[in-house]
Amino acid sequence: MSEERRHADCLLSFIRQDQAWAGWVGTVLAQAGMTVARQWWDFSPDQDYDDLAGRAVREASTIVVLLSPAFVNSLYASREWLVALRRRTSEGSPVIAVVVEPAPVPEVLRFDRTIDLAAAERDEGLARTRIIDGIAPHSLRNTPLPGVAAPPRFPGRPAPIQNLPPRNPNFTGRAAEMDRLHAAISSRPGPAVVTPAQTIHGLGGIGKTQLLIEYAYRFAVEYDIIWWIPAEQNESISTAINGLASQMGITQHTFVDDTVTAVWNALAHRGAWLLIFDNADSPEQIEKYLPPQSGDVLISSRNPSWRRVADPVELPVMRESEAVAFLGKRLRDEQGPDGGAATEEDRRVVARRLGYLPLVLEQAAAYMEDTGLEPADYLELLAEVGEREMLDRGQPAFHQDNMNRTLDLSTEKIRESPDADALLKLCSFLYPDDLPRDLLGRVS
After folding, report:
1. pLDDT band at residue 262, thresholds of 50, 70 and 90?
2. Distance (Å, rounded) from C-alpha 147 to C-alpha 88?
3. What is the dihedral of CA 370, 375, 381, 384, to 10 degrees?
4. Per-residue 3-state assignment (H helix, E strand, C coil) for the chain
5. Is the pLDDT of residue 3 over 50?
6. What is the pLDDT of residue 394?
7. pLDDT value at position 201?
8. Which domains are seen in the chain, by residue range?
9. How far separated are the first and last CA of the chain, in Å rounded?
10. What is residue 239's predicted lDDT score, i.e. its pLDDT?
11. Residue 364, class by beta-carbon neighbours within 10 Å (0-12 exposed, 13-18 middle, 19+ buried)?
């Protein structure tokens, strides 16, 4: 960077869900001659902004904030957030909102200017013009910085063929797991004879499905085809593949295997694609459905035994900071989080009491939302009626079953194996509250 321009012309502020938009907007501004510093805001509340931002951010001439439903629904869409942002940047630096998806913007967020890319729909040229005209100074336009690559694919234009479930605006955290998945897929060296799949495995209710849905949306710009395949039963897999065949203009054959072969042959000539097999039972169940051509495959499963056909990644429960942030996001009112230490501590205790399990946290938040209970009241009720009773209350969003039903399904699966059923009963009898996992490892 030259001596005359040691600070950033623009700070681009966003949350991780919108990183595809950040990449596109940042590159467009760089092509217009602006130096851009990117800063995501969805860090833990206990992290210090100044440690994360650095001098370039504090001296930015213009601050651009990407607005979306995920951002508005986050803890950062509050008056306190905007005051902090203004206080830590250059005096007089304008704060410009760029709306990347339609979202009701809280009145507490007052920006100097708003640029609506959502209204541009899928018109990349119009969106580019609005960004440059609304942000780039005339003195810098048409003087692109050296070495600036072409922008990535326009995020406003989704994959031509896709059938993703709705995105969860309350998705929180999981940055390390998301980065690990993307790094593993991105590092694949060119076309492969056998598609290297990534398998997310873990307990029921731990968030496997939501992680893969968020992954698909977050990196959608990298694909021409994204296809979601419910993999609980062979019939649901066949139905999903028939649907993909229809979308690709492929005639369905009498026998499912022939349709599968036709789809996989066509995928070899259709650019980048991502297939997601959700809730697969075992490698043996879906191995014949795995495509042989180069492409990306993600699998979710409760079964950890996938190493023969895929790289298994175990998904743990949420970190405490993620669980507390999730509850804060789900329970915030229209004025934003109150920031009270007691309220945050109550959320922390709720998260710890519920074991940081995403489905249980969502169910608890739904119940508190429906009944108007505060976290402290919920804790009292939990102590009074017990966990089993509370896990029947509250209908979680983006999940068809509550935690009790999820546990029942897991138990039914265990009972299919007499040995596993006997071991479960023995463990429950010997230690009904908890059992050290390493004990099983020592005797196995």
Report:
1. very high
2. 30
3. 160
4. CCHHHCCCCEEEEECHHHHHHHHHHHHHHHHCCCCEEEEECCCCCCCCHHHHHCHHHHCCCEEEEEECHHHHCCCCCCHHHHHHHHHCCCCCCCEEEEECCCCCCCCCCCCCEEEECHHHCCCHHHHHHHHHHHHCCCCCCCCCCCCCCCCCCCCCCCCCEECCCCCCCCCCCCHHHHHHHHHHHHCCCCCCCCCCEEEEECCCCCCHHHHHHHHHHHCHHHCCEEEEEECCCHHHHHHHHHHHHHHCCCCCCCCHHHHHHHHHHHHCCCCCEEEEEECCCCHHHHHHHCCCCCCEEEEEECCCCCCCCEEEEECCCCCHHHHHHHHHHHHCCCCCCCCCHHHHHHHHHHHHHCCCCHHHHHHHHHHHHHHCCCHHHHHHHHHHHCHHHHCCCCCCCCCCCCHHHHHHHHHHHHCCCHHHHHHHHHHHHHCCCCCCHHHHHHHC
5. no
6. 61
7. 67
8. 3-135 (3.40.50.10140), 161-314 (3.40.50.300), 320-390 (no CATH), 403-443 (no CATH)
9. 60
10. 92
11. buried
Say which residue the tokens 């042989």 belong to.
Answer: 292
Which structure tokens are listed for 379? 């804790």
Give me the half-sphere count of Cα atoms (radius 13 Å) on the Cβ side of residue 31. 15
For residue 115, pLDDT beyond 90:
yes
Residue 169 has which token pair?
A: 């605006």
Digit-coded pLDDT (tens) for 66-102: 988 888 777 655 555 666 566 655 566 788 889 998 8
Is the predicted pLDDT of residue 125 greater than 80, yes or no? Answer: yes
Report the pLDDT averaged over residues 402-425.
61
What CA–CA distance (Å, rounded) separates 233 from 289?
A: 12
Chain-centroid distance of CA 344 in Å reads: 23
* Span 274-290, average pLDDT: 88
Q: Does the pLDDT at position 398 exceed 70?
A: no
Structure tokens at 13: 């502020």
C-alpha Rg value of the chain to the nearest Å: 24
Q: Which of 167-181, 215-229, 346-360, 408-422 has the lowest mean pLDDT?
A: 408-422
Angle CA 146–17–352, to nearest 5? 135
* Residue labelled with tokens 């501590």: 345
Beta carbons within 10 angstroms of residue 348's beta carbon = 16
Least confident of 115-119, 182-186, 436-440: 436-440
Residue scoring higher pLDDT (98 or 153):
98
Which residue type does 252 have? Q
Query: Residue 135 is encoded by which pair of tokens?
Result: 């942000």
